[in-house]
Each structure stands twice: as structure tokens, then as C-alpha cells.
Amino acid sequence: MSAFFSRRTLGALLLLPLFAAPVQAAEQAVCYNCPPEWADWGTQLKMIQARLGITVPPDNKNSGQAIAAMIAEKAKPVTDVVYLGGIAAGQAIEADVITAYKPANWDKIPADLKDPEGRWFTIHSGTLGLFVNTAALGGKPVPQRWADLKNPIYKGMVGYLDPTSAAVGQLSVMAVNLALGGSYDKIDAGIAFFKDLQKNDPIVPKQTSYARVISGEIPILIDYDFNAYRGKYSDKAPVTFVIPAEGSVTFPYIMGLAKNGPNAANGRKILDFVLSDESQAQWGNAFLRPVFAEKLSAEAAAKFLPAADYARAKPVDLGKLGLAQKSIVERYKSDVN
């Protein structure tokens, strides 16, 4: 009997660590507006998992939807970091949904590409233009100007993201407006253009539409150079990028630490990582212009349009654009929709 209990006790002791040891939860964090199909976030999320051991689920919100969700969740925040079009920086600050954090390499960021208090900072930028699936044009010429998009031959073929919520949609209105002689505080030219464009039955999605251009469902999309280059060089699709003859803008994308996020420590690690040499080089390899320009490799840069084309694209004034954001949304709703 004693031997029986000895063996039984020994067996229990051998099994005990399997059940008594606490199961360590996997490190995680949430990033709003980090869609795998946009700006190479798919690769970055894998790198964050591999380098930091932090799992970040994909999130397909746009900038406006991300801020709206953070406002709705103020009492019990869900996200830890947020990625936004630069136009949304002021809105995020005004809504009090982001908080100060100056990540590693903060001092290297140009002053006009970060908030002095650390509530947001640029990680990369893109140039707005025409992302065109040449095969889907059905023999029609590749448009070279903003004005070309109103040509009836492109009826039902032109797309742009919804300016009522997507940062790239709002930027599209302002880019056209500035190219056609408007200013940051006078947007009549841009609104008139998009009102006229309605005659051509444009496609106006709310979410990133990269796959729809690659498939040819949207033959012409007002979008960024990095998506077009990705389609051409990574996915080998029959696509090209055009910086319209009238001009365009270069636009920064930013990140910030969510206020009272549930995994704030991991959020800070992610913000450190996206400014690391490795991450910045990868943004460049994905055809975005990293905020640290020297991290864009010569090999990647050689695949961009010539410098003469980029001379038509001017850096956007984030402060003035932010002040115009509300007007863009309201005028689009009242005059275009």
C-alpha cells in the first residue's frame, strides 16, 4: 500500500509542473488602420512579430474610421497605436485620443514632420497621382492630366477613396484643387472638379482598393505611387503610375500612441521599431519614401518615376491641410454627394 501511494505521489509530482505553471500570454498590441494590403503593412506586421514577439492583428479601418472608433472607445480604449494620413493629425489631437511619446530616433525626424510635443510623427510618405491598370483600359490611352479623368471615354473607370472619411480621399480633393489654381483656404476648384467627375460615374470605395486595381475592376484610381510600384514590380501586374501634368502633392503618413491603450508598453516598442533602420529600409523597399531619406536604397529609387516627374509634386502643408479638412468633408457632402 505504501509503495502504491509512493508511486502515485511521485506521478503527481511529475505532472504538477504541467498544470501548475501559469500559461504565459502571448505579447500583443492593436494598431488601428494597419491594413496588410496598404503600404506594405503586411510585411511590417510580420517583422514586428519576428523581432519584438508582439502579435498585431490586421486592421482595415481608414483614418477617419480609426479616429471615430477611438473616440467611441474613450472610456475603454482598444487600440495601442494608430497609423493615420497626416491630414488627420490635428483631428486626433483635438479628439484627445493620442498621447505624447517620443520614440527612438525622434531627434532625426525633420521638425515639420512631427508634433513638437510628441503626439505624432511621420514614418513615411507617398506622392499622389494616377494608379492605372493599362490592360483594363481596353485600348484607351493612359490619362496624363487630372482633366483627362472627366473625358467620357473613361466613364465608369475612375475611382477615388471617399473624401468623407478616408485621408487619401480628402487629399485627392486638395491635390486637384491646388493643381487647378485653388488654395488651402479656397477649395472651389477641387470641389467643382469632383462634382463634374460625377458625370463619369466614378467608383468611390471607403477602403484601400489596391486589389481592385490589380484585378482591373477599377482601371484608374487616384492613389499613391507606392501602390502602383508595388503592383508593377512586386505583383507583376500591367500597371503604371502617372503624376498629372497639372501637378500633385507628396503626403506624409504618421503614427501616434493611443491614449490609455491597454498594451501601452508594447505600443511604445512598435513606435520605436517603425523608426528603426530595419523598418525604415523596408518601407523604402516597398516603394514608400521613408522619413529618413537615406534609408531608400538606390535599387528601390531606380524604380520610381524620373525626378523631373516628381518635380511636379509639392510637399503638402500639414497645418493648412488640417485646417481645411472639415471644409473638404462638408463641401464634398453638400456639393458632390
UniProtKB/TrEMBL annotation:
Keyword hit for Signal: yes
A GO term for molecular function: thiamine pyrophosphate binding
Highest rank taxon of the organism: Bacteria
A matching Pfam family: SBP_bac_6
GO terms (BP aspect): thiamine transport
Any one GO CC term of the record: outer membrane-bounded periplasmic space
Signal peptide: 1-25
Keywords associated with the record: Signal
Record-given protein name: ABC transporter substrate-binding protein
